[in-house]
Each structure stands twice: as structure tokens, then as C-alpha cells.
Batch of 3 targets.
Target 1
Amino acid sequence: MKDRRSFLKTACKPIVLATLGIPILEACSSENDESYDYGSSGSTTSTLPSTDPLVIDISSESFKELQVVGGWINNTSNNILLVRISNSEIRVFDNKCPHQGNRNKWSYDGNNFECGYHGNSFSDNCSGALTCYDSSLEGNILTITF
Ligand code: FES
């Protein structure tokens, strides 16, 4: 009995390590890492929106453009485009260009966002190519659900 226990202790350890080691090594692979080229700025980040709701106080200085209808910003720290549609609605989009994924050369003409990399234009309605997120505005508090 003692020999069998001793055998199992020594023989099973490598088998268990080999079995668990493969998924651990796969999980450490960088093959699925996402990073984005920011073009001329030369910076790269792997920041993606969290799945937790994002709550923004639009009365803060960083979001002052959203105080007026038609105001918009590219909030690169959260990878989102925001546009004030009406007194009660702010639409929120992923700022990743559907063409090649650039995030930092946006302009807005009142109805469409234009990406400055190749000049493609995308509607500010939520049925266009830009990924649109659910949002709700209560007073100055904007809640975005990813
Ligand atoms: S990357 Fe935006 S238009 Fe090409």
C-alpha cells in the first residue's frame, strides 16, 4: 500500500502539471491581445471599454462640449465618441473607425462623424457602421452601458 501511494505521489505530479500547464500557457499567449495603432501619434494602447457601466458627470470641464446640443467630443481615455443630440439625449459610440480601426482623427458635421485617416463618414444614428452604446442622461449624469 505504501509503495502504491508513493508511486501515485511521484507519477501523478508531472501528469497533473502537464495537463494544467497547456491551458495556462495558452492563456498567457499574446496571440489574442488587442492593441490599436494610433497612427501619427505613435502611441499604442490596449484599452478597451469595460463591460461595467460608465458614469460620467458631463458638468465636469472635460465634458463641457456636451452641455450644448450639437456638441461632441472624442473621449480617447474611454475610447468613445459622444454627441449631444437633444436636451435629453447624448449618443455614445465606440471611437474605433469601422474602416481600419483608427480612433483619434474624428470630426463631426452635425449629422456624421468623419474619420480623417481616409475620409470615411459615418452617421450619428445608431443604425450606422459605428458601434452604438446604450446611454441614459439624468441631469448631468450620463450612464453608458457597453
Ligand atoms: S481608418 Fe478611418 S477612414 Fe480609414
Target 2
Amino acid sequence: MSAPRFDVIGIGGCAWDLLGRVARYPHPGEKVPLLEFREQGGGQAASAVVSVARLGGRTAFVGTVGDDAAGANICREFEAEGVDTSHLFLDPQGTSHLAFCAVLDASGERAIFFTPGSKRRLQPADLDPEFLCSAGCLLLDTHHPEAHVAAAALARQAGIPVVTDLEHAVCCIEELLRLGTHPVLPERFLLEHTGETDGERAAIRLLERYQPRALVVTRGVRGSIGYQDDEVYHQPAYQVDRVVDTTGAGDVFHGAFAYGLVLGYDLPTNLEFASLVAGLKCRRLGGRSGLPTREELKELWRLPLPEAPLLQ
Ligand SMILES: Nc1ncnc2c1ncn2[C@@H]1O[C@H](COP(=O)(O)OP(=O)(O)O)[C@@H](O)[C@H]1O
Ligand SMILES: [Mg+2]
């Protein structure tokens, strides 16, 4: 088989984020000044592939945007980051996903107000199997459930690992859990899905039921836990000097984890790598401002990252 053309292809949600840092949340009817304001791209699979691109990985994004200013901004930023957008569809009748993120200055926690827009959902017929199978790893969220299932099935058949980022129940959640080789799930989703109140028990239930190659549970500032072959690996969150904003930490963790799979990292190494990249993201406002580059990671990561290759 020829070498993969892309390290990671992400299929899923992309958004335009308006982000403001605030001292506190206003009561209804009250005004609170923004300490800082930024606009930038966001979205689960979208920020995941951008984090890989910053590290020098070859990436592509598959999804939909509306025919509006937000959609144009989203595309422009992907291109500036070197993410391939040849399979990013413009819906001429639709509007794009837009979010307003209010970030608390003291803790970096955020509240998000959003509209998914009216852009259409990707369908299995939109997928280009040859293109998808040129990936070293496929990364999926839940924004296009039918297409995610079809893409995951294709990837599984081709022996390509599938990292899933599932935050809430959607129509095809069972199939997505069954088809993901490496589900990387926030603990709150895991508890919600299994009905358990204990994270460890919920993880064991999920492992027994879907038998993924590995399972990772992310727990915000409490770090992450990896499960593989009856082994459990606890990874603390990376300590940054000052947490400015946790928006997109999970997205970035997924991106780095998917890239780590392509780089051949074993599970504990990959958890450490993803935690480092996600932690560094928290240094700045937004899902992307704080993302480390390959150059910066040289100082902070003990393994060499490949030289930035050019897209073919
Ligand atoms: N405050 C933080 N400081 C350092 N790392 C963090 C922080 N919050 C999240 N992370 C990292 O990002 C990962 C994913 O965060 P989490 O909140 O679980 O996901 P999501 O952003 O999808 O809700 C965590 O496992 C951790 O490695
Ligand atoms: Mg998330």
C-alpha cells in the first residue's frame, strides 16, 4: 500500500468563534465589559486538525459551511493553517455554525452560546472513499452522524484507526461507538451514556460492550485516563502557568492523540503528548491562539516530530 497522503483527516464540525474574557458573568439585563476579544475558527474536528497542522502534520478537513461571512472566515483560516479544504462543502442556501464564548478571567472556564446554522449535514454520498483512505488516521465528531458512520466503516475496512470525539447522543451513536477504534470521550458523556455515576465503572462497561482497541476518558483539569489490554494509565493534565481559556482543550487533545497514533506512540506516550498539546492551548484565549508549533514543541516534548512536509 502507498504511504498515506494525509496524517489526519477530520470529518465534523467547524465554527466561527467570537470569544470574550470577562471578570464575571452578567445577570440578565446587566452589562459586563470584555477584558479581551478575539474571533477565530473553532469546532471539534476542525480545531483538532488545525492542532495537527501546527505540529507539522498533513491534514484535511471534511465538513460543510454556509454561504456567509463566518463560512468564508472558516475557510480562509483553514487555508492559512495549511489544512486541505478540497472536501469542505459550501452550502449556498445555508448559514454557518457560529459561537459566542464567554471565558471567566479567574479560572479560564467558559460558557458557550451557539447556533449550528442551517448548512446541510454531510451525507454518505458526499464522501470520497479514495480520499478518506489516504489518511493515516480518521477523526470524527458527531456533527454529520450518517456520514461519520459511513466514513468510519470505510476506514475500518481499510485498517485505518478511527478516533471518535463524542460529546452527546446523536442518532447513530451506537454505530459510532462500535466503529471507533479509539474513542476519546469526555467523562460526562461516558457517565450520561452508560447511566453510571462512577467513571471507572462506566469505562469498563463501555470497553466490554464495544471492545475498542483503546479507550481514553478526558476529565478536564483532572487529566485523562487510558484503558488498553486490561491496563489503566492515569495522565495528569499538563500544568500551564496561567490557564486563560479551556475552550477547545478537548478538540486539541483529540487532534494530538490522532497524530500520536500516526507517529506510532503507545497509549501512555500518546496520553502524555495529547495532554501537553491540550494544556499549552489553554494559555491563550480561543481554541487556536495557544496551539504550539512543531518548533516550540522541540523544547517541551522528548521525542522528535517529523519535519513539516508539504502537501502533495
Ligand atoms: N485547565 C486545564 N489545564 C490543563 N489542561 C487541561 C485543562 N482543561 C482541559 N485540559 C486538557 O484537555 C483535555 C480535554 O479536556 P476536557 O475538558 O475533558 O474536554 P472538552 O474540552 O471536550 O470538554 C484534558 O484531559 C486535559 O488534558
Ligand atoms: Mg470536547
Target 3
Amino acid sequence: MHIERYDGDRDALRPLFALADDSSMQISSYIAQGEVLVARDGGRVVGHAQIIETGDGGVFELKSLAVRPARQSEGLGRALVAAAITRCRECGGRRLIVSTASADIGNLRFYQRQGFRMYRIVRDAFGPSTGYPEGLLVNGIPLCDQVVFERDLGAD
Ligand SMILES: CC(C)(COP(=O)(O)OP(=O)(O)OC[C@H]1O[C@@H](n2cnc3c(N)ncnc32)[C@H](O)[C@@H]1OP(=O)(O)O)[C@@H](O)C(=O)NCCC(=O)NCCS
């Protein structure tokens, strides 16, 4: 497995983006942005990480991250986050932010294991007005609020 910059057709990665975001409307709004790194195994893309500049000096966002279900829990997600951090540092990044649903307990654990700290909650970020189906449950919890994490890129 190796991780490299992806310069191909972004739409070919839509199934991976869809693992990370239940709103195709939202995905369409950002899929073409920033830079995408992919994990490849024998030429096949098995995971991706998208990083974008926020416009706030030195602050980057890990906008989308996913690993194919059959390849999860092998350390690929951790490796993609590490590669994204390295790339942001190369681009002068000082801080990396990432958002997930408060209902997604697995992701809350995953990002904290990668050194991220919570710093903001966005109430009602997910709902019909932002392109998410009404009544969606994650871990039995209604999908409505968003947790924003940050990681200082000066620290290892
Ligand atoms: C989140 C995701 C990228 C993690 O990738 P992964 O390759 O499975 O994760 P890793 O194998 O590198 O795991 C790293 C650590 O996170 C933990 N972890 C990963 N997914 C987890 C989950 N769903 N629940 C609890 N812990 C999890 C692992 O147990 C491991 O812990 P450790 O450091 O104690 O050993 C992957 O599960 C995924 O693609 N999920 C669907 C898309 C998604 O939700 N993306 C994020 C949107 S914000």
C-alpha cells in the first residue's frame, strides 16, 4: 500500500466520498476542491483524504476521508490522516480542522486517537435543509449536530 496525490477524475472517487457524507448535494459542492491523496494497493484505490485551504491563513480542513469497508481497521485511515498532516505542513499549514457528526461515536474515537481536540459544536448542521434525509439515525442517535475538531500541526 502506498499513498500518493490523486490527479484523476474526482467523480471516480464518489463512492468513497459517499462513505464519509450522506448528502450527495454537499459532496457535489466540495468534491472538486483542494487536493486529494489516495491510498493504493496494487493500483486499486482503497482510501482517500481530501484537504482544502479554508482561507484563514495556515488553517486547512480535512474535508473528506474514507477507507473502503473491506479494508477498514487495517491502519489505512490513520496512515491517510498522517499523510494529510504531512502535506498540510509542506504547504505551510499550522492547524488542521475536521468535522463529523456528534452521533458518529466511532469517528469521535478515531479523530481523538489521531490527536484531534474538539473545539466547536454546530447545532442542526445535518438535516433536510443541508441535504440530509429526515430522521437519519447513526448508532441509534438522530443525525443533527456536528462536532468540529482541530489539530495543531506544530505538535506530533
Ligand atoms: C473513519 C475511517 C476512515 C477509519 O479508517 P480505518 O482504516 O478503519 O482506521 P484505522 O484502522 O487506521 O484505525 C485507527 C484507530 O481508529 C480506531 N477506529 C477506526 N474506526 C473506528 C470506529 N468506527 N469505531 C471505533 N474506533 C475506530 C481503530 O480502532 C484504531 O484505534 P487504535 O489507534 O486504538 O488502534 C473508516 O472507518 C471509514 O472510512 N469510515 C467511513 C467513512 C467515514 O465515516 N469517514 C469519516 C467521515 S468524518
